[in-house]
Design goal:
Elements: H1 3-15, E1 21-24, E2 27-30, H2 33-43, H3 52-59, H4 63-70, H5 78-91, H6 97-104, E3 108-115, H7 122-127, H8 136-140, E4 142-149, H9 154-166, E5 171-174, H10 179-191, E6 196-199, E7 210-213, H11 216-228, E8 235-241, H12 253-266, E9 271-277, H13 282-295, E10 301-304, H14 313-318, E11 325-329, H15 333-341, E12 346-349, H16 352-369, E13 377-379, E14 383-385
Parallel strand pairs: 3-4, 3-5, 5-6, 6-7, 7-13, 8-9, 8-10, 10-11, 11-12
Antiparallel strand pairs: 1-2, 12-14
């Protein structure tokens, strides 16, 4: 038996239920404590682990109250919950996950509400993380289901959310493409006490369990630094994606803010131009590029704030320009190939599959074990790729 275990059993013996400890008129009197303590040590198996009953004795609460805290169900006072959590930490208690799942006689559902897109897209890559690096114990009692929606149509989001809520999920992974629609959904999730985790980006919201993704503002700041090389530039073209006709979908707004702040701070005289392109009509997008560069042939710096930089590659390769610098995001295969050829100068990458995997594991631990993530905002690394290191990524 370790000294930590001996100390923990000392606490249980002395404070457990008042039988062996009396406090009267300021004087503590311990009756035959060492005899009782020695007896406990003698009869306790060497590999014995703390039990729910040990937690109950240590806290002075009922076994039922302890069980409700462990399984996050029923009403428990804040004071009792804090006492149980403190006892769990002191005793090193670990729940038997398999036994807990079997006792509940069912499994949990984690819903992934994410856009659907064509193979090779950002969201296709993200979805590949659903079954990646899952804890085999937690996976035993947790099912995953993807509820896809059209990222250009807020009504598609609402319909997918309705289907998802009909399934009564235990937790939700969210990609907030539409800020207002997402805010309405998260309000419903909070009303139902369903924990939710943001990936890729997040909205202003006080109720989310965790976030896994880039620090959006800083990623935009980094993008501007990579585009300019830390030197003043005269003109920049920002190419943005038209996601929906009403303009309600704008998940990169904070990234764009970081980019703009860098330019204003380091290149105060820089003129920033904007072009909107529709991924479903790139012929029109290329005509817009023709018109722009005919009027502005001296623009050599181009940035795009999402994973679609590959949409520009055919036009860029038909119109090569010495000294042009192009920066985009994400390790899609089409982007990586353009980077290898030198058409794209820099990619800032984040592994969306890892975001989904981490989000699923965080929700699984919260739902099954009652554990909160160590950090609420889990900012992913921002990997800077060039044609010289892309082959090793």
């Amino acid at each position: 038996m370790s000294w930590v275990q001996i100390y923990n059993y000392f606490l249980i013996s002395v404070h457990g239920n008042g039988k062996y400890f009396v406090y009267a008129h300021g004087n503590a009197r311990v009756f035959d404590f060492f005899a009782i303590f020695a007896e406990r040590i003698a009869v306790m198996p060497q590999n014995e682990k703390p039990t729910i009953m040990d937690i109950a004795r240590l806290t002075g609460l009922s076994k039922g109250t302890v069980d409700r805290v462990l399984h996050n169900r029923g009403e428990v006072s804040k004071k009792s919950k804090e006492a149980v959590l403190k006892a769990i930490e002191d005793l090193g208690y670990e729940r038997n996950v398999y036994a807990s799942l079997l006792a509940k006689g069912g499994s949990h559902l984690i819903a992934l509400l994410m856009p659907e897109d064509e193979p090779g897209s950002f969201w296709d890559l993200a979805a590949s993380g659903m079954g990646k690096d899952r804890d085999p114990v937690l996976a035993t009692g947790v099912q995953l289901e993807h509820f896809g929606y059209n990222p250009t149509n807020v009504e598609s989001l609402r319909a997918a959310a309705e289907r998802m809520l009909d399934r009564n999920p235990s937790g939700v992974v969210l990609a907030p493409m539409f800020r207002a629609g997402t805010a309405q959904l998260t309000a419903m999730l909070r009303d139902r006490n369903i924990p939710y985790v943001f990936i890729d980006s997040k909205i202003d919201d006080s109720g989310y369990l965790a976030y896994f993704g880039m620090p959006m503002y800083r990623s935009g700041y980094l993008c501007a630094d990579q585009l300019t090389g830390g030197r003043p530039v005269d003109k920049v073209l920002m190419v943005r994606v038209q996601r929906d006709l009403e303009g309600r979908s704008d998940p990169t707004v904070n990234r764009r803010a970081g980019f703009m702040d860098y330019i204003h701070e380091h290149c105060p005289d820089c003129v920033i131009h904007n072009i909107m392109v529709n991924p479903s009509d790139m012929q029109a997008g290329e005509r817009a590029l023709d018109v722009f560069f005919e009027a502005h042939p001296d623009v050599h710096h181009i940035a795009m704030f999402n994973s679609r930089i590959h949409l520009l590659v055919p036009w860029l390769e038909r119109h090569p320009q010495r000294g042009r610098r192009v920066v985009g995001f994400d390790n899609l295969e089409a982007n990586m190939q353009a980077l290898s050829r030198g058409t794209v100068s820099v990619l800032i990458c984040q592994h969306p599959d890892e975001q989904v995997s981490m989000a699923v594991n965080a929700l699984s631990e919260r739902i099954v074990l009652g554990k909160y993530p160590a950090r609420r905002d889990n900012f992913m690394h921002m990997d800077i790729l060039t044609r010289y290191n892309v082959d090793y990524y």
